[in-house]
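Dear support,

We are seeing what looks like truncated structure output for some complexes. This example has two components. We would appreciate it if you could run it in full and send us the complete token output so we can diff it against ours.
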Amino acid sequence: MNIYDIAKMAGVSIATVSRVVNGSDKVSEKTKRRVMEVIEKEGYTPNVFAQGLGLNTMHTAGILVPDISDLYMSSAISFLEEGLRNHGYNCILGCSGFRQESMAQHVQMLLSKKIDGLILVGSAYAGNGASERETDYIREAAAQVPVFVINGAVQGENVFSAVCGDREAMREVTRALLRRGRKRILFLTDSESYSAREKMAGYEEALTEAGRPVLGELKLKLRNRIHATRDLLLQYRNLDFDAVVATDDGMAVGAVKYAAARGLSIPEDLNIVGYNNSSLAVACEPELTSIDNRTEEICRETVDLFMRTLRGETVPEKHFSVSCRIVKRNTTDF
Amino acid sequence: MNIYDIAKMAGVSIATVSRVVNGSDKVSEKTKRRVMEVIEKEGYTPNVFAQGLGLNTMHTAGILVPDISDLYMSSAISFLEEGLRNHGYNCILGCSGFRQESMAQHVQMLLSKKIDGLILVGSAYAGNGASERETDYIREAAAQVPVFVINGAVQGENVFSAVCGDREAMREVTRALLRRGRKRILFLTDSESYSAREKMAGYEEALTEAGRPVLGELKLKLRNRIHATRDLLLQYRNLDFDAVVATDDGMAVGAVKYAAARGLSIPEDLNIVGYNNSSLAVACEPELTSIDNRTEEICRETVDLFMRTLRGETVPEKHFSVSCRIVKRNTTDF
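Here is the complete output from our reference environment:
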């Protein structure tokens, strides 16, 4: 028995159930009566209503992350935790790893902890694009509590998501590199997540609109480690490239180290663009041009959405997107 | 009613209570009977016994950290989570910030989540040395579940701790710098935590044993940010120093940036040593000599101790220490 069952039995959407429970006046008296009858008959007060009813809530958000040692994810958690704490909410966190089965199992674990809502950090939760069914576990969780996906778009009732415009940002930097005369732009990624796919799509779009071919040899998948990236690039002795775009700063810093090892000048011989604008971008020399994916804003918006949803307010947009920002430093000449 | 009460009523230590409940044969029949009588009379099965009795356990560890965006802490959590998961344990995490009141409150929050044991990551939990009472909240928590402190030593029944030899490591690098003729060694720290105090003590011991004065102007407290450190050092125009040791890599990378801005050669004009051997040490140029505080080993030992304690095994050492390792790279000439 959950909010879906109530909605189904009353013949309304879960948003309507939520509004009724939270006393919104946007619902007709007739609908309100029908919903309340079902709720009373079933004697049920699920978590999602708890805040509005002042019942049964622990004021706790569940946050799930695949890899907490990742700079992007740990900074997102830090922002979320601070925002939720300011609203009097505690956080409990789980680390799920990247395996589908483990992600679904950790969602269940967090649901068992009496959380009021679930936040999934990182586009790994949005599946790798092979099948819609990969994200069924998210819709199932959303039958119990509202679910918020950060950096990945998932459709479903009671599912909300926030993404930054990775595709547009990568298209924009690729365009800028092409405009400055770069001919062979290497794309480095460590993942096939939703956001990695968006970034690759933006890279390919910029090439295609400029009438350039998308070359398989210029798209490398590798580990997001500085020295591992440097060493791999050193092994590709006959691979010609005059620019690098990477889906994370770690690989981009590896490209900076590669340039030093090969005696290449940055940015003259090689332009390099990282992603996530992490502390690595500032630590390296020359300092790295990187794409700021606005973690702080995305987390702030998510906390706002979380609070409004728990209060039963009508949320105009279930999926929102913020624009990335290109932070120009010394590894590019645009 | 908790394990302390049982122990007190039976007139034995909590270790003995734990052994009795877990069927250890190291307890005399007489003691065993006395303890079981108290437990049966009180009808009580606290969390700490749950594993042994197969009752009431959620197989969940609570982990508390002051700042999850800190590289050291997030990597520790990652190791702990992996180790505990391998033993079938889930983790719930809290972020407490650094304020005493908030740390104590977050401990209570985690205890309310039916955890089997509590792991506190980071020496901030061990107090700033002003008073023993700062850590009372840890001993109070230990009355409910075993508590494990990582990177800080706290005394108390049912309290375990793991530290790395920060004092010895800092003494060793300071000695090495002095041996190579460095005369004015700047000590940079962002904290007054247990481990920061240990590091400073090691620095001072090396100076004192070499007959050098400990100078107040050569000990700076600042924010652990790369550019902030560089800019601060640039402002100290008349501060003379030929080496820098820092309690975290972020500040040491800031010193590398400072040297570049001043046109100083590394390591000729300036030796620099960081701490934590994070990815920042590898990202910067020249790459940073840093002290590896063995996070992975400490976390592995802690997980091992956690499991043994929950199984009711006798743990020979409640406090253990591993030695740090100096990772020599290109910012030192020793």
